[in-house]
Amino acid sequence: xxxxxxxxxxxxYDQVTYTCIKPxxxxxxxxxxxxxxxxxxxxxxxxxxxSDATYTNIAWSxxxxxxxxxxxxxxxxGVKAGTCYVYATSTDGNNVTAIVKVxxxxxxxxxxxxxxxxxxxxxxxxxSSLKYKLKPSNSTDTIEWIxxxxxVATVSSSGVVTARGQGSCEIYCIxxxxxxxxxxxxxxxxxxxxxxxxxxxSYTLDVFGASGRIKWYTNNNRIATVSSNGTVIGRKPGxxxxxxxxxxxxxxxxVTVTKLKKY
Length: 263
Hints:
The protein folds into three domains: about 25-105, Immunoglobulin-like, CATH 2.60.40; about 110-185, Sandwich (Immunoglobulin-like); about 190-260, Immunoglobulin-like. The chain has no helices and 29 strands. The chain has strands spanning about 1-5, 15-20, 25-30, 35, 40-45, 45-50, 60, 70, 75-80, 80-90, 95-105, 110-115, 120, 125-130, 130-135, 145, 155, 160-165, 165-175, 180-185, 190, 195-200, 200-205, 205-210, 215-220, 225, 230-235, 240-245, 250-260. A hairpin with a 4-residue loop joins strand 8 and strand 9 (about 75-80). The N and C termini lie far apart (about 115 Å).
């Protein structure tokens, strides 16, 4: 800031005060192209050069506020489908301007959600990745994955299901407009994973959470046999494995048979 005095020799004078400013030479906006849905907001930043310009404030404006409007911080909100431009203008009187092209797309609500598996059987600790499709296929909805019982299974934001404990629950895929798909999940487990039997003693194995037919197998029927209902009978001293097959999932129980005691 400086002051200049002006006199004409008559003794009358006046003083003028002026300010020297460093003007804005350019403005960079990021992003410079925005595609958004109706009702959504995207924040745009403006960087002034030089950084030590006297006035660094930005005036924001829209070429068509019926399509998109912008707040004083550069937050652009879509109003209706169409294309317009948002301007970031310097406030130093130099009128340096940067332009953001804005495309607003209409919201297309989902009417249905289809999950890649309607039913699923897992063992504790196992994982499975679920996929989804929205109807119509050009829906703009976002989705959220939810489990009805996190003690039985959890699900990630990308649809990866992790079995946590025995039981049944539902895995939901819910669109932002309220459409949903569901996967029925069973987490199965044997009632015992290791048993010891004396010769000719029996023990009945069961698969908790099984809703279908269970197929039973023994690795060595000379040591232990297993019936169609899971009853294991010790035959000969030794160790073998009993296998349960439920919906393609295999569960194992180690059976140790000891020699019959003599009394």
